[in-house]
Design a protein that fits this description.
Mean pLDDT of chain A: 86
Strand content of chain A: over 45%
Low-confidence stretches of chain B: 481-487
Strand content of chain B: 5-15%
Number of strands of chain B: 12
Largest sheet of chain A: 22 strands, antiparallel, barrel
Low-confidence stretches of chain A: 1-18
Radius of gyration of chain A: 33 Å
Radius of gyration of chain B: 26 Å
Strand order of the largest sheet of chain B: 1-5
Helix content of chain B: 40-55%
Mean pLDDT of chain B: 92
Structural class of chain B: mainly alpha
Oligomer: heterodimer
Largest sheet of chain B: 2 strands, antiparallel
Number of strands of chain A: 53
Structural class of chain A: mainly beta
């Protein structure tokens, strides 16, 4: 009966549709002719519609021949096409050029129209990432995103990258964002880094990503942007989307090749070029004494023609230009990638192979990397889609440079060598019996030629990751998605010091094996429905299980038996040890949900919430909840602005919280065995120097953000502005405490920090001509103020980093901007004059005071792109204003008499010294020559207030200063750098129309070619030795690198 | 359809709750142990006390030994050993090293063995060792964190107060008394003991001998209390034999970071050829030469060649030319001039500037050289002083003094490879003190000059004993590097670490106020009462 009743309206309907017309068609990308799947086709003014399949085809029935189709697709300009009686229509859509209206990948890999977002995101496309010869995908983004600070270390391309988003908010931890690759969190984390005592930068998880495989990178900055990623998103999220085979039909092959050359770009040549090797204006008297090649207190170059060196030979005594860089060589890097894509209506796949082969500017250093990736997608039924991805990586790095105070730091080995001493003479580094020749007179600075010949290190990394993602579309409204992903690597590091290496006399072999594994399982439902009126709802709930495990085995062999042979059986004293810091597990389980409510494509509100359970917290505190809400109003859709220059206007606001957990293994008290015995008595001790805390609580970041996006003159000008205020409470801190407590740190919820700032992105297209000439400019600006609001234990300062040299520390002081450089200052009288002691040497204050601050005033960048027909020229300038740096390199140059400021008073002092020596050598007959106040008279007053008039040896003066105060060696670390410059040319198709080639692009590129402005003599202001929070210390830096080369891209 | 969602949602929520079951297990540090037998910590503490190259290089060889004019010549002595400071941080090393390592572990041993009858000797020995460590610190710095120190984990004290040295000494005597009484020969021996292999009787003697040393420390401040403690120590039994010496026997292992099994001082001497610049100072060399001290060429040696002492690259010409020491405050390259030809073992050998001064000998710079914490010779010298003062019924100052010389010479032979000193040479040496002075001051001078010689390589002990007794008579010097026109007088204490200004500001300020308002190295510690 019921069925019968239904038949009636159906029959009526069929009558109505009698005059209908069936139209077929396909939709393609106007730029490359590739089919567009999932594009929506609506009939203007009517209900009903269709969407394209994976080959871009659609079928739609329209009421009559006059119907107008409205075709839209995310990221493309919507187009209207009249049917006009055509039975088959080919439609091309052009890409949305205005970034304001583009599509972005957001949390959980959901693509969304940017206008719907209530928070700021930063984006980069393949163009920004590849094509400039940078082998590290993240480092290629330096200067290109507002509020995202990217820096490397002086270790170079195999080192790690520090990325901080809107400043630091954890005093403990690296402040690194979470990295998510195609929806699966990736293991990042530094594998090992240098500290003030030396060590290597062993790189991080990120350096593995092949830039040529990256399609886009999106950075989610605030809390509400990241709430759905949970704990680990406290410092923001970097979403990396790799290239896939979607929208490709048939087989496509892409080949790209980069060849670049690296050269050193700092020279250590901002020094005095008047006095060379020696002491007190005289050359050293014996060959043995001449072993101090870093003392530039000798006679003038014009006084002597030759000088006797350590080996007894007479060598020329004159200043040598370009001495240091002659030690280095030109590095050459090849980066080749071949990718094959293929697909049909229901399945597609992309496979790529990439090879990097690189030699560094440091002799004997280099690396090779092979990456295989495959990513495929198959629509098994109309409802079920499966996506799988896998990659395999093999990396081999030889002779990573040792950093800071490591005996093998080449930067240190070359530092302050007297201007007349040719570094090439150091090639004679060993005696005939194999023992070390001590040129530097310093047990902590190995001859760099010894380093490259008698010490080696080698690391091998194998990384496997894979994920499987299943989507089931119950109906138009409800979708279920489940994924499982794993990321796993093993890292083997071998570090060898041959017998007689200074301070490693017996020979040492260190073997470290690190295994790191992370698994993620996730399931979620997505529900999408119109509600009443013009309201729409897009809701999601899901859960995630994350398991991470680490193991770390360290084997050390000492007392080498047969010199030169680096196998562990060749050492008489071997111990195996599991270092505490690398043997931890972590699990985080989460449930989360979000609901986006929208009205008329104008107003959007999103509510998000998440609850995490973390294994790193004690049971009572391991569950924590946090919500977020954001709103976006597209004012330009509400008002008719067609008569104004405003083409787009959006306001946004968000509030959100993110909770985060502790580092694993710090809730309980432990002992450890050392693996060593003294006189057959095994030795053990309390593990570590941190007081554990069995009551640690999660830390929370609360972030508030408002902003607007405006487009003017058809979006030829656009502005994106954000103001944010983020507060981190209960920050989990390894609080440095009095060492007399028995520990150096206590694990506590002990700090609250605040980050406030603004970000601005300005885009401008001054030229856009119909002949294809186009000029784009883009500027970004970010200013962040980070304040330590409170600290536990009545402490007023948190020590983030220490330098043994001159007793400097970097601290966060309560109520002050984070990153104060503290140390002893000179002593001053009431009028601000330096007080000089009776001995003519400066006096110093009793307690450390603030001498500078490492946080930059603002950072920014500018990009200019000029394109005409097949040519595209692009340049990127990276700017940092303010932010101090304590340069231990320059400190050494003062102490060793190379800094130009050390010239004053030398002639008088040297004259006196020579008279004194002559008297000594003459058998000390008669009265000793008197100084007669010859020497360096420091500006300042005596303790009684009268001007200082005591002359001293300039070397004594500067050694004293260098050892007691960092003050004169603190420089403004700001810079302006030409980061990237490049010209690419896409050859006209007419040149190769007979070849089976679609596209050929060639280019010349340069990276870091020009430091336009800096204030740090002799060093690159970007000379960090690690990526921790103690930014602002520089020591014995290896020179910076500049790079230029060629690239070729061929698409078949 | 919605039902299914809710079921899955509810189910997964339950699953998450259930999954946290293994969280506590996951958060354990796999490299750690929740419990550890005290013996392993005890052995490590004893090795660390004298096996840490970086620490001994700074506080002792760079500062204390040169200040007391045992050693000089090395660049490192400019960081304090020349009564001026090139780099202040060297004065903090022992503080910053010892609290978080030796003292933390000793406190833990004491806490966890307190109520265990099977560990009574471990408990008592750890208490004695703790005083040995603390007494060195307070003698160097003065008021220091003591009663609240090393309790960061157990009592959550992150900002320990500074106790006055007076209170600290009071507690030393109480602790030593109780610890010695607690030692029980019928209970299990002290396990993991590098000094005595667990011998309880020897630990008693060490406890009492330490009390003897610390009791005498008070002679300038509180003579009655000094007498009381000295007499108590003597009556309970101090060291008597060579075998009673408290020493860490080190192993022949070269330096590496964290490797403290080799002798820390020897690791310094072997850091660079020619003893890393170290030379014996003329003050010591001349004292020993003038008394025909048979240990001279066990302590020092004349070596020719730019290589490590003890290696085949150097020729030992000790005794083939006069023993020369550097002038106090000099670098090895100061006082220029080659010695010229010496009568080497195989004929004439040319001795340059760099080789003419005595270097620490191949015996004392052997990596497996023992380090002497407290020797029987020291006890005998102190007994000689007790006899001078008529304390505790001790008589025969000369006898005790000469037995001290005898034992000191015998102990020198404990350095690996060192020849035993012929008795005739010892007798010659003793003869320099015959007749033994009857005048108190003259006798004190003899005793404590020899105490000072015997403290060779233990600079901080020599420094403390010199501040108490005034012996030996040191030559006040100005640096031969010419740059200290107005060199200060002899410093009386070590500087507090600058880190305390930031990490423990209030307590630090209290201590500074008691010191007169500044972290002043000229201010004496409490027992070093100035006339």
């Amino acid at each position: 009966m019921h069925k019968l009743l239904l038949l009636v309206p159906m029959a009526l309907l069929s009558l109505f549709t009698y005059a209908q017309v069936k139209v077929e068609g396909d939709v393609r990308d106007a730029a490359d002719g590739q089919p567009l799947s999932g594009a929506t086709i609506l009939i203007k003014g009517k209900t009903g519609g269709a969407s394209t399949n994976s080959t871009g085809k659609f079928t739609i029935t329209v009421p009559d021949n006059k119907a107008v189709l409205v075709i839209s697709s995310l990221g493309f300009v919507t187009k209207e096409v009249a049917v006009n009686g055509q039975a088959s229509i080919s439609i091309t859509l052009s890409r949305e050029e205005s970034e304001l209206r583009s599509v972005v990948v957001t949390a959980l890999n959901i693509k969304r129209q940017k206008s719907a977002l209530g928070y700021a995101v930063a984006e980069a496309t393949a163009k920004d990432i590849a094509g400039f010869g940078e082998t590290n995908a993240m480092q290629s983004l330096a200067g290109k995103m507002a509020g995202v600070n990217i820096s490397g270390t002086t270790a170079g391309p195999t080192g790690s990258t520090r990325i901080t988003i809107r400043g630091v908010r954890e005093l403990l931890g690296a402040n690194q964002p979470l990295f998510v690759i195609d929806g699966v969190p990736a293991v990042n984390g530094n594998i090992g880094s240098a500290n003030q005592n030396g060590g290597f930068d062993l790189g991080d998880g990120l350096s593995d990503i092949n830039p040529n495989d990256v399609e886009s990178i999106t950075v989610l900055k605030g809390a509400s942007a990241a709430a759905l990623y949970g704990s680990r998103a406290m410092n923001g999220v970097v979403l990396i989307t790799t290239k896939g085979g979607r929208n490709k039909k048939g087989i496509g092959v892409e080949f790209s090749s980069n060849m670049t050359i690296d050269k050193v770009n700092t020279k250590l040549d901002e020094v005095q070029k008047i006095y060379g090797q020696g002491n007190n204006g005289m050359v050293q008297r014996s060959a043995a004494e001449a072993s101090n090649i870093t003392s530039s207190w000798g006679p003038k170059y014009t006084d002597n023609d030759t000088i006797r060196q350590r080996d007894g030979s007479l060598r020329p005594y004159k200043y040598l230009e370009n001495n240091m860089q002659n030690f280095f060589r030109n590095g050459v890097t090849w980066l080749n990638t071949v990718a094959v894509t293929g697909g049909n209506e229901n399945a597609n796949i992309r496979a790529s192979y990439s090879n990097i082969s690189s030699t560094d500017v440091n002799p004997k250093a280099g690396f090779g990397r092979n990456t295989f990736t495959v990513r495929g997608e198959a629509r098994l039924t109309d409802k079920l889609t499966v996506e799988a991805k896998g990659s395999l990586l093999f990396e081999n790095v030889t002779n990573r440079p040792a950093l800071t105070d490591d005996v093998n730091n080449i930067g240190n080995g070359l530092l302050a060598i007297a201007g007349n001493f040719d570094q090439a003479w150091l090639q004679e580094f060993a005696n005939p019996d194999g023992t070390y020749i001590n040129y530097t007179g310093n047990n902590y600075r190995a001859n760099p030629y010894w380093t490259i010949n008698r010490t080696t290190n080698n690391s091998k990394k194998q990384r496997t990751n894979g994920s499987l993602n299943v989507r089931y579309k119950f109906n138009e409204k409800l979708t279920f998605q489940a994924s499982a992903g794993t990321d796993f690597y093993t890292f083997d590091f071998e570090n060898f010091y041959d017998k007689y290496t200074p301070s490693r006399d017996g020979g040492i072999l260190q073997l470290r094996t690190i295994k790191m594994k992370e698994e993620n399982y996730q399931a979620m439902f997505n529900y999408n429905t119109p509600l009443f009126g013009d309201f729409k709802l897009n809701a999601m709930v899901g859960g995630n299980i994350m398991r991470n495990s680490n193991s770390n085995v360290f084997t050390e062999g000492k007392e080498i038996i047969v010199p030169g042979k680096n196998i562990i059986a060749n050492f008489s004293n071997v111990r195996v040890n599991n270092p505490p810091e690398g043997n931890t597990d972590r699990a985080i389980h989460s449930v989360f949900g979000s609901a986006e409510l929208s009205w008329k494509d104008q107003l959007y509100t999103t509510f998000q919430a998440r609850n995490d359970w973390s294994s790193t917290l004690p049971k009572n505190n391991w569950s924590y909840f946090y919500p977020a809400v954001d709103m976006s109003w597209l004012a330009s859709n509400t008002f008719d602005l067609s008569n104004t220059p405003i083409s787009y206007a959006k306001l946004r606001a968000s509030w959100g919280k993110v909770g985060s957990d502790a580092i694993p293994g710090n809730t309980a008290f432990y002992y450890a065995m050392t693996g060593l015995s003294i006189n057959n008595k095994p030795m053990g001790e309390i593990l570590g120097n941190v007081i554990p805390n069995d009551n640690i609580k999660p830390q929370f970041k609360t972030s508030k953000e408002i902003g607007f996006e405006m487009g003017f003159l058809k979006d030829r000008i656009s502005v994106d502005f954000t103001y944010y205020d983020e507060k981190t409470d209960d920050a989990i801190v390894m609080l440095p405490i009095a060492q007399t407590s028995g520990y150096n740190f206590a694990m506590l919820n002990a700090a609250s920090l605040r980050n406030k700032g603004v970000e601005l992105l300005l885009k401008f297209t001054p030229l856009k001509l119909s002949n294809g000439l186009r000029w784009d400019l883009s500027f970004n600006y970010a200013k962040n103020t980070n304040t330590v609001e409170s600290l536990a234990q009545g402490l007023e300062a948190y020590v983030a980093a220490e330098a043994r040299w001159a007793g400097a520390t970097i601290t966060g002081d309560v109520g002050e901007k984070f990153g104060s450089i503290k140390g002893l200052d000179y002593k001053y009288d009431d009028k601000g004059n330096k007080v000089i002691g009776a001995d003519g040497l400066p006096l110093f204050g009793d307690n450390p005071v603030v001498l500078g601050n490492t946080t930059p005033d603002w950072t920014g960048g500018a990009t200019t792109t000029l394109s005409y027909k097949g040519f595209e020229f692009r340049a990127v300038v990276d700017i940092r204003v303010g932010g101090d740096l304590f340069s231990m390199t320059n400190m050494s140059l003062y102490a060793q008499g190379q800094a130009p400021a050390t010239l004053e008073g030398r002639d008088g002092w040297n004259e006196f010294s020579r008279e004194y020596r002559a008297w000594q050598d003459g058998g000390e007959i008669g009265p000793a020559p008197t100084q007669n106040n010859r020497g360096y008279i420091a500006a300042g007053v005596k303790e009684d207030g009268t001007p200082n008039d005591k002359a001293v040896s300039p070397s004594t003066y500067w050694v004293k200063v260098a050892n007691n105060t960092p003050k004169p060696f603190i420089y403004d670390g700001g810079y302006v750098k030409l980061r990237d410059i490049g010209l690419n040319y896409t050859l006209p198709k007419s040149l190769y129309k007979r070849l089976p080639v679609q596209n050929i692009t060639v280019g010349v590129i340069g990276r870091n070619l020009w430091i336009i402005s800096k204030n740090t003599p002799n060093i690159d202001p970007e000379s960090n030795y690690n990526n921790g929070n103690g930014q602002g210390f520089e020591y014995g830096s290896l020179p910076g690198r500049k790079r230029y080369g060629f690239n070729v891209l061929i698409k078949l | 359809m919605k039902c299914i969602q809710y079921i899955i949602l509810a189910g997964s929520l339950l699953a998450f709750q259930a999954c946290t079951r293994d969280f506590e297990e996951l958060n354990k540090n796999k490299a750690g142990y929740n419990e550890l037998d005290a013996q392993y910590q005890f052995a490590k503490v004893q090795a660390d006390m004298s096996g840490d190259r970086e620490d001994t290089w700074r506080y002792d060889l760079g500062i204390a030994s040169p200040m007391i004019q045992h050693l000089g010549g090395s660049w490192w002595t400019q960081h304090g050993g020349m009564y001026q400071v090139v780099e202040k941080s060297h004065w903090f090393s022992h503080w910053e090293t010892t609290y978080p390592r030796e003292l933390k572990n000793l406190q833990d041993i004491i806490d966890k063995t307190a109520d265990d009858p099977a560990q009574v000797n471990m408990h008592a020995a750890a208490r004695i060792l703790r005083i040995l460590v603390y007494s060195k610190l307070t003698d160097m710095y003065g008021d220091i964190p003591y009663s609240q120190a090393a309790k960061g984990f157990t009592d959550k004290i992150y900002l320990p107060k500074y106790d006055t040295q007076e209170e600290i000494y009071k507690d030393f005597f109480k602790e030593l008394d109780e610890a010695v009484n607690e030692l029980n020969a019928s209970a299990p021996a002290v396990a993991g003991d590098v000094f005595y292999d667990g011998n309880v009787a020897k630990w008693k003697k060490l406890g009492n001998s330490l009390r003897l040393r610390l009791g005498f420390r008070l002679t300038k401040r509180d003579l009655a209390e000094a007498k009381k403690q000295v007499e108590a120590a003597i009556s309970k039994g101090v060291m008597t034999d060579l075998a009673d010496i408290a020493m860490t026997k080190h192993m022949d292992i070269t330096y590496a970071a964290g490797e403290n099994r080799g002798n820390g001082r020897s690791q310094v001497f072997k850091a660079e050829p020619r003893s890393s610049g170290f030379r014996l100072v003329r003050t010591l060399v001349d004292t020993m030469s003038m008394t025909s001290d048979p240990r001279l060429y066990i302590f020092g040696g004349t070596y020719v060649g730019d290589a490590f002492i003890g290696s085949s690259g150097v020729v030992d010409i000790s005794g083939y030319m006069p023993p020369l020491g550097t002038v106090p405050g000099a670098m090895a390259w100061n006082l220029w001039g080659d010695y010229g030809n010496a009568n080497g073992p195989n004929g004439p050998i040319y001795v340059t500037q760099n080789d003419k001064f005595l270097q620490p000998s191949k015996y004392v710079s052997a990596l497996n050289a023992p380090f002497f914490h407290l020797t029987t010779a020291e006890v005998e010298f102190l007994l000689a002083e007790a006899a001078l003062r008529n304390w505790g019924g001790v008589t025969g100052a000369e006898t005790h003094f000469k037995r001290g010389l005898q034992l000191a010479c015998e102990a020198a032979a404990l350095y690996p490879g060192a020849p035993a000193v012929p008795q005739a040479d010892i007798d010659d040496f003793k003869a320099h003190y015959t007749p033994f002075p009857t005048n108190f001051d003259q006798a004190m001078k003899a005793i404590h000059t020899q105490m000072w010689v015997n403290f060779f390589l233990n600079g901080t002990e020599a420094y403390a004993n010199w501040r108490r007794t005034g012996y030996p008579l040191l030559n006040k010097f100005t640096s031969v590097e010419w740059y200290s026109a107005g060199a200060p007088d002899f410093p009386r204490r070590f500087f507090y670490p600058e880190s305390e200004v930031i990490q423990n500001p209030k307590n630090y300020q209290d201590a500074i106020n008691r010191l007169g308002g500044a972290n002043d190295w000229m201010k004496p510690v409490w027992w070093d009462k100035q006339p």
